[in-house]
What we know:
Chain A is an alpha/beta fold. Chain A is built from twelve helices and 14 strands.
Amino acid sequence: MALKTFGNKDTRSGFGEGLRLLGETNPDVVALCADLTGSLKMDAFQKNHPDRFFQIGIAEANMIGIAAGMTIGGKIPFTGTFANFSTSRVYDQIRQSIAYSRKNVKICASHAGLTLGEDGATHQVLEDIGMMRMLPNMTVVVPADYNQTLQATLAIAAWDGPVYLRFGRPSVPIFTPEDAVFQIGKADLLVQGTDVTLIACGHMVWKALEAQVQLAEKGISAEVINMHTIKPLDTEAILSSVAKTGCVVTAEEHMMNGGLGDAVAQVLAKNSPASQEFVAVNDTFGESGTPNELLKKYHLETTDIVLAAERAVARKN
Amino acid sequence: MADLQAIASQVRRDILRMVHAVSSGHPGGSLGCADLLTYFYNERLTINARAFSMDGLNEDLFFLSNGHISPVWYSVLARSGFFPIEELATFRKISSRLQGHPSVDKNLPGIRMASGSLGQGLSVAIGAATTKKMQADNAMVYCLMGDGELQEGQVWEAAMYAGSKKITNLIGIIDYNNRQIDGDVSDVMGIMPLSDKWTAFGWDVYHMDGHSFDSMREVFAAIDSNKSNGMPKMIIMKTEMGKGVDFMMGTHKWHGSAPNDEQLATALAQLPETLGDY
């Protein structure tokens, strides 16, 4: 069975379009950028609303602080820079001035994971989901494709509290219908199955869908869940699926430590221990290369999900 | 007009009694800034103490970036009517709204941003000042920083931004006592020439005696008359760490240590109880 797509596009452009729409509909939305306006696709907002766009320069710590301060008086600031500079570079600023202070800032992060490619490990943050989900009061959203990133951008503006929104650089298949409802904290059950549950986020959701097709050819019925919100995690979706399938594979373009896989394992360990395999980067930094070369070298391909699913199924009692 | 001298004396008593009660906290810088905060909350700032709102529309906003001097802020806030004076007795105790460093986590009226990890307040103040401008709110935003705090790089990101982008409704104050935990600021890591640095970053710089209400009135009158000169304002406020208690002055020793029973008694004897202890 061929998977249905609506073409290919980068998720960051979904963010840019969502921000442009917010510019038209929500006068409280303001945007801040640390010298990466083009890369973040914030140009349209900047052009349409110069009075609500703030070019901060290459000073991410200051950007986070300014965004936190702007909420006092009711603005809804969206900050934009690469994922690494949105998180690890400014972790204490986020911790004290946004998360602990409960400020309604939306931290929007592009070029996450390995697929930013040739720039190499300095820019390929693989720890950001872990860092952000550890912070109390923080919501963590990792949409899967262009349409979903657009909808997620609209949704986080209406969500009261700090949010980390993670998206990426490469062009990837669009499979979420334009009119699909996006609800923070409510996972998308994409394909129903009975033998194994594939739980993925971000770019890896498409690969999980591809893996499901390949597994079907091998006689393994896989259920596919798009876990677009890492926190708050949809535990009900995990537990009801695994109750049926008995085993799980998590897939993420992120470090194995601290990411989606850990979050799912915590839920299972506490409620209903099950065989689990982790498709993620295993305690190593990335490097330069094309996105596809990197996904192959660091075992984040469709094949890796298929093999992991077979291992998880084999380990079931 | 309120008797600022009398209020400041009581504030200093509060500070000493608060840190003594829990054998922890930061009396030195708190005593040094007691006069400024007394002046701010009793004379300078346009605020609504009885009906605190996070957004503070049309009110002046004050941010304490050097959050470790929380005792002086808590005392002044309580004695200005933000919360009951008796609550000062809960400082640093379990489940208190008066955390060791200021927080909004427990909804203490008067506080809009956590501080304690240094260097972040000026950026926050810029953000709040920017929102005020967008909303045509003519009130001002104030940010107090320590002098040692200027060793944090983020302060200079904020300094560059506010000068370059002309954040004119922002007034910064540096508590210039030349002391930090490890010793004199000039020995630990020098920050001079202080005035030239801020001027070079595009700020309109003023010098003020942090223990003279007349000096404060003069400087703020000058700032008000220069309101439209297109620059953010920075006040270098000369203070004495430990001001008001003879044995706490002239040393960095009391930056972060509390007096024992005997030391407290000696200190309190130097500060008249003017408004009644909590």
